[in-house]
Amino acid sequence: MAGLRAKQKADRTRRILEAATTLFRREGYDSARIEDIAEMAEVSVGTLYNYYQNKGDILVATVAMEVTEVLEGGARIVANPPLNVAEALRTLIEQYYDHSLYYLSKEMWRTAMAISIQQPDTPLSRRYTELDGQLCAQVIRLVETLQARGVVQAGVDAKAMGEVFFNNLNMMFIEFCKVDAMPLEELKARVNAQHEPIAALISSIKIV
Fold first, then answer.
1. What distances in angstroms separate CA 73 from CA 104, 111, 127, 149, 167, one per listed residue?
2. Which parts of the sequence belong to the HTH tetR-type domain (predicted)?
């Protein structure tokens, strides 16, 4: 019985988040109403409030769903990365970027970012920061894995270097979200161009 309840809860959660993302995209975050989200998800407004206190909660839950799926895909890459620093970074980061607009639009990302900055002491902001931390940790693990396999120089501080790569890809993603007209391919090309020289510097395999 407990398993059935958990399955039903997961199903309702998924329906609420899918309805919310549909309405956020169609009507905009500010214009979307809780009542309409509940109706589209086929749950009562009361049931929805049992799961989420407000639209901000729903938005951050959507970000969490996005990041969870991205981390799962990233884990497979980190477990068996290309044995070339630039290629490994490109593969992981492009997996992040390619999934980034699956649930959320640029406008939704901007709103989530704004909430995390404007309300730094709230559970929503702490959750957003936690998700960023998980992504950063995965980039660090990639550098550590490459170093363990002899691709990254032994003297390189893998944690510091992973943080550098993550901070750059994160900042570039913010810039991407700020410009509605910027295509995803431009973002990927710019980040790859920025990371390639650093990858060459830390690589133990020099390409002539």
1. 18, 25, 20, 21, 20
2. 10-70
